[in-house]
Amino acid sequence: MEELPVQEVITSLSDALRSSGRALLSAPPGSGKTTVVPLQLLREPWLHGSILMLEPRRLAARAAASRMAWLSDEKVGQLVGYQVRLDRRVSKATRIEVVTEGILTRRLQQDPELQGVGLVIFDEFHERSLQADLALALCLDVAGSLREDLRLLVMSATLDTLSVSRLLGDAPVISATGKSYPVAVNYLERGPRERKISQEVVRVICQVLQKEEGDILVFLPGAGEIHATQAMLSERLDAEFLIYPLYGNLDSAAQDRAILPDPKGRRRVILATSIAETSLTIEGVKVVVDSGLARQPRFDPNTGLTRLVTLKVSAAAAKQRCGRAGRLGPGVCYRLWTQAVQSRLQPHMQPEILDADLSFLVLELALWGVGDAADLCWLDAPPAGAFAQARDLLQALGALNKEGQITAAGRRMAAVPAHPRLAHMLDKAGHSGQVGLAADLAAILSERDVLRKGPNTLNSVDIEDRLALLQRWRGRGRRELAEFGADVAACARVVSISRQLQKVVNVVAQAAGSPSRTLSPGVLLADAYPDRIARRRGSEQNSYLMSSGRAVGIPEGDSLSGEEYLVIPSLDAGRSEGRAFLAARVTPDQLRRFLGSQITFDSVITWESRSQSVVARKEERLGAIELSVAPLSDPDPAKMRKAMLDGIKSLGIEVLPWGRSVEEWRGRLLSLRHWQPDSFWPDLSDETLSAGLDAWLEPWLQGITRRDHLRKLGLKSILSNGLDWKQRQRMDQLAPTHVQVPSGANKRLGYQPGMSPVLQVRLQEMFGLMDTPRVCDGQVPVTLHLLSPAQRPIQITQDLRGFWERTYQEVRKELKGRYPKHYWPEDPLVAQATTRIRPGRGK
DNA sequence: CTCTCCCT
Can you give the CATH number for the domain in which A345 is found? Predict the structure, then answer.
């Protein structure tokens, strides 16, 4: 104990704590701070009461307690004790108690004064877990008001010491050195054709095995990369090398195999996630190969879901990984990135509080009496978006009232050691006598999956398969459990957790009640996860839409494949489609019976472009999913007309029955509007009609529900509806449909908006007329298209008089040659107009 | 060839 480097700073640390009550100890791994500091400080005369030390992991808490007990020549539970979930070793004699983070929060909530405690130590604070940040905020609150004599010590390996010191009220910073061996760092470039990280890692491992001695620890981001690397590596390496995967979801027997050195002394390659960074220590490692990647959860407050992202590690994490090669003697570290990249790494990983589901934290704060996070002091305050999402969820679960204050149900939920959703489920189950099943479900969802995953195991996300394993565990089939693909250690843990939950709920529940009804797992879970009830999407076998509107897939060939309705409590949000990890069947009838208040009935009246018609249906919905559809018996006529209008808008006004006569009528009107802009002529242009559809067309759409029905519309009478009798008279007068020509025939005028109307007429029919006919009270001359007897155009003019005077004689010569039998008088103005070959003769 | 880690 005397040799440890932290000994040198104990005196100054003690002085700092005595005088200012707060201190920050910065010491790298191997300094001995976790065991030396509590034991030494316990002897200080200024300390009144016991020491409470916080560890981020159960394993670390137990290990620290037993090491300290051993150093003080005692058994654990005497002077030094510990408490983690489901395991408590303390006695009246205990003066140093090591606890995990959740335990400290519980204790603070039950006894905010922390009676009998003189010093709280936060170990490994640089990991910045959500729980540790919360615990420190609560302790600062206590030490600032109720217990001004409570001393606080924050210990960390690498940390932004300045900001922590400021948070602690400018507490003194004490630094100690570590005791570890030097590790030589090598930076490597990625090979040109190595597209996958596993290819690169395999190449480096093969080189390193030849160059260096000792076991190799390889850091990879996740299980996928580990398995890919393992497959490639086992092809390349002889059997004399041992390859072990190591990650959290691996069962504990496999984890143990990876941690301990080979008794026969064969060389080992351990392919690990960041679990080997701090949580597990592997004996005999001399070489570290670091991919530089880590997977981290990202919580999205908009969806209430978490997804995993692969990120570059922080400089601090890379240093920590490196250090794993220098525990026994000098080591080597190979980094699969360049020095240029190294200089751009983030100094620290994002603290959990900035990227996590905050529902648990917000419930704890409400129980503490704090509705606004700003009432406490934080190193990084909880983000407003996630905070608001958590408050909304807790309100929906009945844990908070509208003002954000904790309710009676919220108090009961806070006492349940599980996620607030699961606590809510347990609380409700407590009243319906279904605690056993609810506790099993909550335990399954809180702990590692009891079903092992691998090539030869059951392919299932069905939570009922897990319940069946627990049944077997409790019954006589425990021995064969492994054959059914069970992770035996995980089963044991889940069963213990379930027992603890049942106990808590039965104590807390107001009326434990007799089993009033038998609820299915799906029903219980639907109540806790109403936003994750899912319906299969159409013809897809494995794709679902959740009530929240998000898409989720289940694995192909899963035992739940093809199920119509599921509740999906556990999933990865993914980018566009999520992936389900655990799900339960549910039926629409169950949803109606137990989630009735969340089901809505919508009358949907809408244009459906597929059938080109208005559809009116009654939809029974749970959020984004549709439980049933039926035709609407008495749809609101106004909404029907509106939907038809939407259809017409989407198709464009071309779909209306524009016949020739409507177009002609509109041409006349638009022409008048052009000639008399200040008069009352309405604007019936395409643009204006399209823009004003709702006003002019809507009243006429009664009973019109399909595109075909539009033929029935009398468009001309609809459009002329805006003109009164007098205006119509005036229109006929100013823009007549026909004019009479000298031959006596009535000729149609062709109106184009903005242009003079066109009169097409054979030249012979115009003999005797001196001037161009005019419309619009004589303001607008028509445009004459003078035609030959064969209706070929001869001349276009608005000046008939000029034509007679200047052009006629020339035209006459030509026509005479081509139509010799026809009548071509020398003086057209005195000649008689005719519709025939010559005037006065028969046909 | 699929899920990082941790906690009441």
Answer: 3.40.50.300
Q: Is the CB of A131 under 7 A from strand B?
A: yes
Together in a domain, A161 and A289: no
Residues 455-494 of A with CB under 7 A from strand B: 455
* Average pLDDT score over chain A: 90
* Structure tokens, A259: 């941690």
Work out the angle between the directed axes of helices A420-432 and A521-528 (0-180°, nearest 10): 130
Looking at the structure, tell me whether residues A168 and A187 fall in a common domain.
no
Distance CA A646, CA A694 (A): 9
Cα–Cα distance between A620 and A626 in angstroms, integer?
A: 6
Of the three residues A733, A761, A778, the one that is the final residue of a domain is A733
Nearest to A436 by CA among A446, A445, A426, A428: A426
**Is the minimum distance from the CB of A500 to strand B below 7 Å?**
no
Using one digit for the tens of pLDDT, what is the confidence trace for A76-124? 999 999 999 989 999 999 999 999 999 999 999 999 999 999 999 999 9
Q: What whole-number distance in Å separates Cα of residue A197 and Cα of residue A209?
A: 18
Q: Residues 310-329, chain A: which have Cβ under 7 A from strand B?
A: none
**Whether residues A760 and A721 fall in one domain:** no
Give the Cβ contact number of residue A381 at 10 Å. 15
**Separation in Å: B7 C1' and A94 CA:** 23
A651 beta carbon < 7 A from strand B? no
Domain, as residue range, for A246: 183-350
Q: Convert the pLDDT of each residue in A154-198 to its tens digit.
A: 998 876 788 899 999 999 999 988 777 889 999 988 777 777 888
Q: CA A29 → C1' B1, Å? A: 36
- Number of folded domains in chain A? 4
Residue A600 lies in a domain: no
**Helices (DSSP H) in A376-434: which residue ranges?**
384-396, 408-414, 420-432
Is any atom of nucleic acid chain B found less than 7 Å from the CB of residue A275? yes
| Residue A843 pLDDT | 44
d(CA A436, CA A160): 46
Q: Is the CB of A249 under 7 A from strand B?
A: yes
User: Which bases of chain B are under 7 A from a protein CB atom?
Assistant: 1-8
